[in-house]
Amino acid sequence: MTRMRARNLGLPLAGATGPNNAITDVDGVLVGYETLDGTAANGRPIKTGVTAILPHGRSGTPMPVWAGFHALNGNGEVTGTHWIEHGGYFVGPVCLTNSHSVGIVHHAATRWMLDHYASHYEAHHLWAMPVVAETYDGVLNDVNGQHVEVHHARAALDAAAGGAIAEGNVGGGNGMICYGFKGGTGTASRRVRVGDEQYTVGVLVQANHGKRDWLQICGVPVGEALVDDNEPAELNRERGSIIAIVATDAPMLPHQLKRLAQRAGLGIGRGGSPGGNDSGDMFLAFSTANQGPLPQLAPAHQQLRCVNNEYFDPFYMAAVQATDEAVLNALFMAEGAVMHKPAGWCPALDVDRLAPLLRRAGIAMNADGL
Fold it and tell me: What number is the average pLDDT over the span 146-172?
């Protein structure tokens, strides 16, 4: 069966999307993947990878990316967030990987920055502190084998591109499980009009969270009906996390972006997750607007344009809707995978089983998707 995105299956999802319904609808934002599938020398499965996001594309000039961070539940890691909290920005790429590969990906992303912005690092005393986030893929992947290497992260960065992007078992999301089904990478976007200007809010998630019996789709509690008693109990246990990256081209200040990042938590709540104790539910929002020199190289006074707080409700709704849809896209686009620990099979969300549950609630899915 061909895997299809949530909208293509006819789910009634509110809001106007960008042309690709992806984070790359935010002008300048590029996404790249390096996906690792194989078998280690000890026979254990390798199912992991790296996702790379370039907020300012391939610009050769390092610029502050104004940002805000929020942790709904802090059982995880996102590097660089102390300075985002205090300085209001980061510089360089955002990378997503598995829990035991944060260090090597950070090392690779730093090297990429030193190479990509070489003349600036040569001429000035600048520091590199890229953002690297993780979720745990040890159920499907030999996470303790630390199979991600520097060249894998560099490959993801080098592959970054705009337009439509792959979802499901790709990049850092390759080995992830969501609501007891194969999860992974998902994305979505929304258009927002404020005054006489139109903006875009795009979200990319690495979805690895939730118990199966929690799952809700379009407000319908379908999870309990999808629980299989003959499947490993691991599939109905909260052991994962979710990273949501929210991008926008709207001019926002760091405190506003922090508030925007918080709304990703409401987005995952629509899917049924309360933010479990063992889940690192962490959200980063950034704006590609207000481009300019690094503060270290800027004059004493700066001027930043921003949207009036009183006009923010449409942005909040966009972040909630896009996060919810990005998780659904991760679920609908992912393909089932062999489990490593414990042995077994992690299934993809079965549209044939889901359709009658939604139909009883008055939601008809497209026939082409069945």
Answer: 98
pTM for this predicted structure: 0.97
Catalytic residue among 137, 142, 281, 324: 281
From the list 99, 101, 189, 241, the catalytic residue is 241
Amino acid at 212: R
Backbone angles phi, psi at 357, to 5 degrees: -65, -40
**What gap in Å lies between CA 105 and CA 355, rounded to an integer?**
40
Q: Amino acid identity, residue 166?
A: A
Angle in degrees, CA 58, 169, 6, rounded to 5: 95
- Describe the crossing of helices 254-270 and 313-333 by its angle, rounded to 10 degrees: 50
Phi then psi for residue 159, to 5 deg, are: -85, -5
Choose among 3, 46, 50: nearest CA to 350: 3
Q: What is the pLDDT of residue 1?
A: 65
Q: Active-site residue 279, yes or no?
A: yes
Given a cut of 80, is residue 3 above it in pLDDT?
yes
